[in-house]
Design goal:
Helix 3 (61-73) runs antiparallel to helix 12 and helix 14 (393-404) packs across helix 15. It is globular and about 65 Å long. It has 444 residues and is of the alpha/beta class. Strands 4-11-10-9-8-5-6 form a seven-stranded mixed sheet, with helices on both faces. The model has no long low-confidence stretch (mean pLDDT 97). Helices cover 38% and strands 16% of the residues. The protein has two domains: 3-56 and 344-442, Aspartate Aminotransferase, domain 1 (Alpha-Beta Complex), CATH 3.90.1150; 64-342, Type I PLP-dependent aspartate aminotransferase-like (Major domain) (Aspartate Aminotransferase, domain 2, 3-Layer(aba) Sandwich), CATH 3.40.640.10. Bound molecules: pyridoxal-5'-phosphate. Pyridoxal-5'-phosphate binds next to helix 5.
Length: 444
């Protein structure tokens, strides 16, 4: 099959340079394990778990079988005022995995929906408690919480502000970015230690400016994944928790990437020993096979909403999606979570993380244009000096080159990110890292 068998006139590709794509189509038609087969019969090693999703590897039979069985049993049922058995079972399993009293799961279908759901819970919760004036959100520079207006607003990507800035949510502020390129450009399998406390500005400037009593929630990714695997300084998230507790502010962790094993623990919250008030998930919960996302809330949030004094026939949280708790997606989640457990895949991620980190530091350090390498958990990024006048182009060229050499990596700005499935082995890590190192050398 060649690219010309596709009529490419109608699909407008997401987050992709469309005009360039037409000159160099990259089309996959099958996948198994860590490999894709392309339309022109090439094998591509998936070095990024298909964007942090396929953490158990492609084409896993137990997940596929569970989906097929569910289709023949209950294909779909409305989620409003009726529910389904698989949604209850999946929510139970997710709550069991989550730390502390993160016990109540609101389902949706994506990380973007999870972000907006969590922000709406925060507003509704404070209102239910008689603190409706708490309506300011705080995010972080370069944070990514998806593409909907709430997530974009609390997120801190300049590209979103450039194009959509005029209509982003008004009462939002941002903490500084967690990157120290002078002292911590190279992070090798351990949390970076900073000389200064980057959260001083939160207490002394941002909260002082808005008054903490007006702030509804702070939302952060435990590790900034989409921007290029930027790791928080040691103690940062614990300190953030303390500040939120002191001021009655809800803490939301966006764990769309760090959730379900990427750090070698159930969630990033477990890795960092901090329980947020809400935890957003998506992607890996179904091994990426079927869209499912959600927000796990602590008991006190649910209880406050239930006990707000409205009559029993009234909806307590005026929110939900047609596909919240879709039975087929939930059946996929149940099978995926069982598979994680049966194959002890989070422990495998914990074991393979240092192997990936060591390989990346050994291969990339000292290569032309390399200005940073950050590894922790089963993921890492190598940062390159941007080309003069063309930020992102060097990484994009290298991404393309690696693809044509049989390895899929991810370009994020001038970072190249590697985040394979937890089932990755040492020889596959060597192939991914070796191909990328070669390409960096050739693009000097
Ligand atoms: C931390 C985080 N939040 C939200 C999202 C958005 O998820 P989705 O693309 O499923 O809407 C992503 C996607 O990469 C993410 O990394």
């Amino acid at each position: 099959m060649s690219a010309h068998h596709f009529n490419m006139d109608h699909q407008w590709l997401p987050f992709t340079p469309n005009r360039h794509f037409r000159t160099d189509p990259r089309v996959v038609v099958a996948a198994d394990g860590l490999h894709f087969t392309t339309h022109d019969e090439q094998k591509i090693l998936d070095g990024i778990s298909s964007l942090w999703c396929v953490t158990a590897g492609h084409n896993r039979k137990p997940i596929n079988e569970a989906i097929k069985k569910q289709l023949d049993t209950l294909d779909y049922a409305t989620a409003f005022s009726v529910s389904n058995d698989k949604a209850f079972e999946a929510a139970h399993m997710i709550a069991e995995l989550a730390p502390g009293d993160l016990n109540k799961v609101l389902f949706c279908s994506s990380g973007s929906e999870a972000a907006d759901t969590a922000l709406k819970v925060a507003l509704a919760y404070h209102r239910a408690r008689g603190e409706g004036h708490r309506n300011i959100f705080i995010g972080r520079e370069k944070g990514y919480h998806g593409v909907n207006f709430g997530g974009m607003s609390v997120g801190g990507l300049p590209a979103n502000r450039k194009v959509y800035g005029a209509q982003l949510l008004p009462r939002v502020d941002h903490m500084r970015f967690i990157h120290d390129p002078v002292h911590n450009a190279y992070i090798h399998n351990q949390e970076p230690v900073w000389q200064e406390d980057p959260l001083v500005e939160l207490e002394t400037r941002i909260l002082a400016l808005h008054d903490p009593s007006n702030v509804a929630a702070i939302m952060v990714e435990p590790v900034a994944g989409s921007a290029g695997w930027y790791l928080p300084p040691k103690g940062y998230l614990k300190r953030l928790r303390e500040i939120c507790d002191k001021h009655g502010i809800l803490l939301i962790f966006d764990e769309v990437i760090t959730g379900f094993g990427r750090m070698g623990t159930n969630f990033g919250a477990d890795y960092y020993g901090v329980v947020p008030d809400m935890l957003n998930f998506a992607k890996g919960v179904t091994n990426g096979v079927i869209p499912l996302g959600g927000v796990i809330c602590r008991d006190h949030i649910y209880n406050a909403m239930m006990n707000a004094g409205s009559p029993e026939h009234v909806i307590e949280f005026f929110h939900g999606y047609t596909y919240s708790g879709h039975p087929v997606a939930c059946a996929a989640a149940i099978a995926t979570l069982n598979l994680f457990k049966e194959e002890d895949l989070f422990a495998r991620a914990a074991a393979m993380g240092p192997v990936l980190g060591d390989a990346m530091h050994a291969a990339f350090k000292g290569l032309p244009n390399v200005i940073g390498i950050r590894t922790l958990g089963l993921a890492g990024a190598v940062e390159l000096a941007p080309m003069a006048g063309a930020p992102g182009k060097r990484a994009f060229d290298i991404f393309l080159d690696c693809y044509h050499k049989g390895v899929l990596v991810r370009a994020a700005g001038d970072n190249l990110v590697i985040c394979p499935a937890f089932t990755v082995d040492k020889s596959q890590i060597d192939q991914i890292v070796g191909t990328l190192a070669d390409s960096i050398r050739r693009h000097a």
